[in-house]
Design a protein that fits this description.
Strand content: under 5%
TPR repeats: 188-221
Distance between the termini: 109 Å
Keywords: Coiled coil, Nucleus, Repeat, TPR repeat
Number of helices: 12
Helix content: 55-70%
Coiled coil: 91-161
Order of helices and strands: HHHHHHHHEEHHHH
Family: Belongs to the MS5 protein family.
Strand order of the largest sheet: 1-2
Structural class: mainly alpha
Number of strands: 2
Radius of gyration: 34 Å
Subcellular location: Nucleus
Largest sheet: 2 strands, antiparallel
Length: 246
């Protein structure tokens, strides 16, 4: 029998000491200032224009937009928009924006004359949007006959297939977002506006016809309510309740 070696020690595993006792963990290496990512002045300028929704640059039109949207000085903005139009700088945009500012200042008549006088300087693609601005200006100025004439002209263009520059859809803005609308949706909108104009003249029969044509293209609660008003003026509200369940 082998003698037992009392000096033998059983094998074992030792737990390494915690790192916090041996010192703090090494921090991440510092990036030299020369290698850090910097935002260039041009990029800062772009961010500024995006945040304030103004175009970049220093042209007459850009200066007018900055005064309109950043300085909040509509009267001065109108003068600068005129300068942009006279300089030939984005005449269509300057004309439309100036008309909107004039409308806000209750200068709709002046805006109407400006568009009529200078729209020939604008490209063909912008004529439809200028017509839309004119419709709103006619409404603000109380020129119902001119509003009806403009809306009927828009319907005629749709019937002839030349609305939307010959396309079936177009990009528009709704609640600050870009959306695609169809010719049918636009026709329904124009018919609704035309019906409203006839309502202002007291021509409820014609207004009823246009509202029904608009609703046949696209359901709309607002048009249904206005149609109910037409029928109420003609003492036919009960029939309206049955047909549309308002």
């Amino acid at each position: 029998m082998w003698a037992r070696d009392m000096s033998f020690q059983p094998a074992g595993f030792s737990t390494p000491p915690p790192t916090w006792k041996s010192g703090r963990a090494n921090p991440p290496p510092m990036v030299p200032m020369s290698e850090r990512k910097r935002i260039s002045p041009a990029a800062r300028c772009d961010l500024f224009h995006v945040a304030h929704k103004v175009p970049a640059g220093d042209s007459p039109y850009v200066r007018a937009k900055q005064v309109q949207l950043i300085d909040k000085n509509p009267s001065k903005a109108i003068s600068l928009f005129w300068a942009a139009i006279n300089a030939g700088d984005r005449v269509d945009s300057a004309l439309k924006d100036m008309a909107v500012v004039m409308k806000q200042l209750d200068r709709a008549e002046e805006a109407i004359e400006a568009i009529r006088s200078f729209r020939h300087l604008c490209p063909f693609e912008s004529q439809e949007s200028l017509n839309n601005v004119l419709v709103e200006l006619y409404k603000r100025a109380g020129r119902i006959e001119d509003e009806i004439e403009m809306l009927q002209s828009k319907l005629k263009r749709m019937d002839e297939g030349i609305a939307f520059n010959g396309k079936r859809t177009k990009t528009a803005r709704a609640q600050g977002k870009k959306v695609q609308i169809t010719v049918e949706q636009e026709r329904s909108r124009v018919l609704g506006n035309l019906a409203w104009a006839y309502m202002q003249q007291g021509n409820y029969t014609t207004a009823e016809e246009h509202y029904k044509n608009a609703l046949a293209l696209e359901p709309d609660k607002n048009k249904q309510c206005n149609l109910a008003v037409c029928l109420m003026h003609m003492n036919r509200i009960q029939k309206q309740d049955i047909c549309f369940k308002l």
